[in-house]
Design brief:
Number of domains of chain B: 1
Shape of chain B: globular
Radius of gyration of chain A: 21 Å
Shape of chain A: globular
Structural class of chain A: mainly alpha
Helix content of chain B: over 70%
Distance between the termini of chain B: 46 Å
Strand order of the largest sheet of chain B: 1-2
Largest interface: A-B, 55 and 50 residues
Helix content of chain A: over 70%
CATH class of chain A: Mainly Alpha
Strand content of chain B: under 5%
Low-confidence stretches of chain B: none
Distance between the termini of chain A: 12 Å
Number of strands of chain B: 2
CATH topology of chain A: ABC transporter involved in vitamin B12 uptake, BtuC
Order of helices and strands of chain B: HHHHEEHHHHHHH
Number of helices of chain A: 14
Mean pLDDT of chain A: 83
CATH architecture of chain A: Orthogonal Bundle
Oligomer: heterodimer
Mean pLDDT of chain B: 83
Chain lengths: ~350, ~300
Amino acid sequence: MFKKPCGTFDEAYEKDTAMVRTPFRWVMLALLFALMFLVFPFVAGAYLLDVANNIGITIIAVLGLQILVGFTGLISLGHAAFMAAGAYTSAMLSEHLGWPFYATMPLAALVSGLLGMLVSLPALRIRGFYIAVSTVAAHYIILWFILHGGDLTMGTSGLTAHEISMGGFVFDSEFSMYYVIMGLTVLVVFLLTNLMRTKIGRAMLAVRDNDLAAEFMGINVFRTKVLAFFLSSVCAGMAGALLAHYQGLITVDQFTLIDSIWFLGMLIIGGPTIIGAIFGAIFLRLLSQLVLFMAPFIGGIFPAFSGTAVSGFTQIFFGLVIILFLVFEPRGLAHRWQITLSTFRLWPFKTPLG
Amino acid sequence: MTFLLQMIVSGLLSGAVYALMALAVVVIYKSSSIFNFAHGSMVAFAAFLMWSLIVQFELPLLAALPLYVGCLFLVGYLIQRLIIQPLTGQPLMAAVMATIALGDVFAGIITLIWPGPGRTLPHVFSSKTLHLGPAVMSSEGLINFSICVLAFLAFFIFFQKTRIGLAMRGTAEDHALAQSEGIRVSWIFVVSWIVAILLAAVGGILMSSLYGVNSAPLHGLGMKSLAVVILGGLESIPGAIIGGLLIGLIESVGAGYLDPYVGGGLNDLMPFVVILLVLIFKPYGLFGYERIERM
């Protein structure tokens, strides 16, 4: 998978462990950052920035799920509920107590993470999709408490969250929030990439591939699974808090089981790597924008289906996309990306991946 | 005491329907080890399909039923052949994921074809209030209960006495062994999906006589049968029935006594708390096959 281009040799230990290994990659990374932070926000309008912000929040949430699904081999159907827990914790702290964002977001992430640990307790005695069932239960339980929270969570009418303000500067536009969200996204991507290079990350991979063998190697399987759930929910909580303060109003309807399914779908489409999760999130979010654009045409062709047709059509479409990826390209977009990269790298020779 | 009896009666009545729906999950799990997460949406879809045939197209019941069963046969067949079959040989998780995505597709079909508020199915039987000692129940609840019992019996006869049932039980034991006996395992999977969707349909129709044909409650009720399956044990058919009645009881009695303290709605919470507790303390359920594994 990680073939280096011809002529790249590691002569020192630091070089071997470096995250960015070649000067070319440094240049590409710098270009990417320049594009992300210096060009795109000034070129794009409010609409595009809004799309980008939503993608950024989704990427944070999906990366959290990737720790579970892609790296530890567990399925969670409660990710949207953990996001809701984070969103509501942050919104409640800011609404009722007036705490600033930089205090509420870590707390939201922590609360969400602890809930995730609680849900993962059955992992002590069972494996496989039983965990997924316990996350479904967690989804309904968390949302029940939010719905019946009375004045604390405002039930069905939705809870308002204050805009983020730091030292007198209020992040109230898409433009300013873009920097907050993208900054945090880059941070999460960096931290996760690093996590997967550490002992914990490799323990997760070992548990995914064969938990029995992993245990024989001295890995505490239960602790690894609980830790994976914790980290995953922390990411979900972060994303939820961001979403709450970005939108200003959150309702229970924003965190449904369908959303959790979408997150899983993004991972299936992307593939089991960090770049895969990013690809999947971008791909599905852009696709949903495309469907929104196409909605008037669909309504024009099938007048009977206009109105709520868009949401129904989107669901069918995405369900089918997920199934098609499962059947025809289970390794996801990340695998296609690797093929593309190695085609360039090994040209004029054939790539062995295809 | 009257109150308790009332709660027990209503709990048993709804528990029977849960048990029926749970049977659908168990049948699929027994034959192919795939846990069907699309179950909730399948229940809702089946109820809406019935509504379309009877109310929208105004078919008489006798004409609608064969057509309905035919549609469900087709749906079950297509699910197995187009989605589950191509995933053979891939990790089991892939198939489970596929059922999750399938649930999404069903939910989408429902919003696309039957948008807007809920609908109601016409009453086939007149609704009267019956008295069982001091407890009260509607005649509809009793009829639902009897239909459930009939469906259980039909399923038992099918599963225990027919050749296909025998083949299904053989497949549940061992795929390779069943194959070497001349049973077409892939065909058995098709049959189990069809049986499952039929059971889900009966459950969905019975439930919608109580709650109306509504997407979200039906989906939630289908999801509640996950609790039944977990409590009863994944591979156990008696477990599904006993688990169903138990969940009905727990939900009804628990909500009856505790609702006044928390402001209502507890019956939607109870089954999922049961799931968590069972998974932590008795993960293979009451009658499930306890695999001895190193954790």
